[in-house]
Design brief:
heterodimer; A: about 325 residues; 9 helices; globular; B: eight-stranded mixed β-sheet; four-stranded antiparallel β-sheet; protease (chain B); EC 3.4.19.5 (chain B); Ntn_hydrolases_N (chain B); autocatalytic cleavage (chain B)
């Protein structure tokens, strides 16, 4: 018991037909991020700095749905959001609707550290970013060819589907990519690519922190805000625990998923693993999601009710694991 | 079992000495809105319809910090936000950054019912409003002279305020106004919670936010779990200092401690408010568990709430706790 622990994720809900090469790429990225976090922890960086560092790495890499490589809005643009929370004192910061900020999680941190507010969005957030002198780029920078293709498939899928729950059976131009009947948020899983990223850390002093970052739902309406920037839904940290969630945003919000883990620990006295199991089993209803969590005692846990979740975790006593399924 | 409804016009250390010229119009407005809500419940409208209706009324009254009468951002503009939640299904809707939509709470409801999303903000929300054909107005419609004055005071004092200030007297002595202990103003976020005789619960909250807030600042009111929450146990609408309520997940916690610690509604509300620094939060809540009191308000909420005894007689009163 005790000691540091770290977990990272790259999204819950993985296409069972995902090419092996892509799975390996994801595992390599998660491993690299874990090592970055572990180095930082060994240098005694506090948890809040570590989560920011790791999520920056995930945002910068185009593989997952955050920063560069974000999912596209219905207009083909990128609108990013993120939140970060520091367990001691439960300080928090969040941003939404970012279009030029290279690292949303860092802007969220600045909201927490440099403003009297907790959450800034859209034009106001961009203006704040300019004033803070953070690195800004054109919206194009975030857009990848992969995602342009995905958006097209998503639009085709939406024009065929009348109801979220009717499985598609490869009836449109997507061919083999559309054959999986698994759906999330009304889209075939091959297209939905939930891949929000997040990191939770507890440092040697037992301080917990959490951060989550995303481009949001593929083909979302502009202005749509999901769970990732909402404290209590996508992200939460307090004295006991740090949590980052991913999956169907609406389901996560409705169940205030991140807070739920902490609440059952706080109010029902469950252990970290019991809390994560309980929340995933009983609090999601029909929603599909996953989460990672660390406790102040140096434990790490993850849970998901989806087919797979890109994740990695490590603890000070040498345990390390990266997985997809 | 019967129905119950509670509504509020904000919290934040309202001095008991609030002068009559400020208190009476607000009481009258609250009374009117309460009557609207009661009539709807008696007509067997679903609590979701009831809370939307009541909050629309509150938004339309210029005395409260929502809709018309919203406080101003540091740029002198209005950015409104709201959320609504149905306890039975836990469906919810939220909006932020509205500048022309007359009734933010109704747009939040449309997000819930007409989109696959829960939360729309800023230009996207405004575009959706136009698509839906909801009532919009020129941004100047929402601005009142009192709020222009509040912003001026806040900027002079270089402070972001919860929207409670000393009464806007025509005194040129800004220092007097600034002498308020924490500089908070005396108008507030609005909200309503309701439960019908079948135990269906709903909650809605709406606001213009903080005086002199940064453009783009989002508070607790549109955040499910912070300002608004409803499930099968209770419905909560909270108000106060948004940042404290976000980190305290106030609305959600009331339901959580009832469920996980077995507290009564009143105990749960007191517990949760006790976790937040004093003067930072208040809430209204109703439960479906048939306990009395059916409603609870804390701590300095300017609120009217009745407890239904029978159709003929329903006592209600104004609570200004200290």
């Amino acid at each position: 018991m005790g000691g540091w622990a770290i977990a990272v994720h790259g999204g819950a809900g993985v296409d069972p037909n995902l090419p092996k090469e892509r799975q390996e790429e994801a595992k390599r990225l998660l491993t690299r991020c874990l090592h970055i976090g572990i180095s930082a922890l060994r240098s005694n960086l506090p948890a809040i700095d570590v989560v920011e560092l790791v999520v920056r790495e995930l945002e910068t890499d185009p593989l997952f749905n955050s920063g560069r490589g974000s999912a596209l809005t219905e207009k083909g643009t990128v609108e990013m959001e993120a939140s970060i929370m520091d367990g001691p004192k439960r300080r928090c910061g969040a941003v939404s609707g970012l279009t030029t900020v290279k690292n949303p999680v860092s802007l969220a941190r600045l909201v927490m550290d440099k403003t009297p507010h907790s959450y800034l969005a859209f034009a106001g957030a961009e203006e704040f970013a300019r004033k803070q002198g953070v690195e800004l780029v054109d919206n194009d920078y975030f857009i990848t060819e992969d995602n342009v293709g995905m958006l097209k498939l998503a639009k085709e899928a939406n024009s065929i589907l009348f109801d979220y729950r009717i499985p598609t059976l490869g009836t449109c131009g997507g061919g083999a990519a559309m054959e999986s009947p698994i759906q999330m948020n009304g889209l075939p899983i091959s297209v939905y690519a939930p891949e929000t990223v997040g990191c939770v850390v507890v440092d040697k002093e037992g301080r917990c922190a959490a951060a989550t970052s995303t481009g949001g739902l593929m083909n979302k309406m502009t202005g749509r805000i999901g769970d990732s920037p909402l404290i209590g839904s996508g992200t939460y940290a307090c004295d006991l625990v740090g949590v980052s969630c991913t999956g169907e945003g609406e389901a996560i919000i409705r169940s205030t998923l991140a807070r739920e883990v902490a609440a059952v620990m706080e109010y029902k006295g469950l252990s970290l693993h019991e809390a994560v199991d309980y929340v995933i089993k009983y609090r999601l209803d029909e929603g599909k999601a996953g989460l990672i969590a660390v406790s102040k005692n140096g434990e790490v846990a993850c849970g998901f009710n989806t087919t797979g979740m890109f994740r990695g975790c490590a603890t000070e006593d040498g345990f390390m694991e990266v997985g997809v399924w | 079992m019967g129905w119950a409804i509670a509504l509020h016009g904000g919290a934040g250390d309202i001095p008991l000495s609030l002068p009559p010229e400020l208190r009476l119009p607000r009481e009258a407005s609250l009374r009117h809105c309460l009557d609207v809500g009661i009539a709807a419940l008696k007509a067997h409208k679903h609590p979701l319809d009831v809370v939307e209706l009541v909050v629309r009324e509150l938004e339309n009254h210029p005395h409260f910090n929502a809709g018309k009468g919203s406080v101003l951002t540091s740029s002198g503009t209005v950015e409104m936000e709201a959320s609504i939640m149905d306890g039975q299904t836990k469906r919810c809707g939220a909006v932020s950054g509205l500048s022309t939509v007359v009734n933010a709470v109704s747009l939040a409801r449309l997000v819930m019912e007409k989109t696959p999303h829960i939360y729309l903000g800023f230009h996207g929300a405004e575009a959706f409003a136009r698509e839906q054909g909801v009532e919009t107005a020129d941004p100047s419609y929402f601005v009142t002279p009192e709020n222009i004055e509040r912003l001026k005071q806040a900027q002079e004092a270089n402070r972001v305020q919860i929207d409670y200030t000393q009464p806007i007297k025509k005194e040129p002595n800004v220092a007097a106004a600034a002498r308020i202990p924490n500089g908070d103003s005396q108008i507030g976020t609005v909200g309503c919670v309701a439960v019908d005789s079948e135990g269906n619960l709903a909650s809605a909250t709406s606001t213009g936010g903080l005086v002199n807030k940064m453009a783009g600042r989002i508070g607790d009111s549109p955040i499910i779990g912070a300002g608004t929450y409803a499930n099968h146990i209770c419905a909560v609408s909270a108000t106060g200092k948004g940042e404290a309520m976000i980190r305290g997940t106030v609305a959600r916690d009331v339901a959580a401690v009832m469920e996980f610690k077995g507290l009564s509604l009143k105990e749960a509300a007191a517990y949760v408010i006790g976790q937040v620094p004093p003067g930072n939060a208040g809430l209204v809540a109703v439960s479906s568990t048939g306990e009395t009191p059916r409603c609870t308000i804390l701590p300095e909420c300017f609120v009217l709430l009745p407890v239904k005894m029978d159709i003929q007689r329903f006592p209600y009163g104004i609570f200004q706790l200290k």
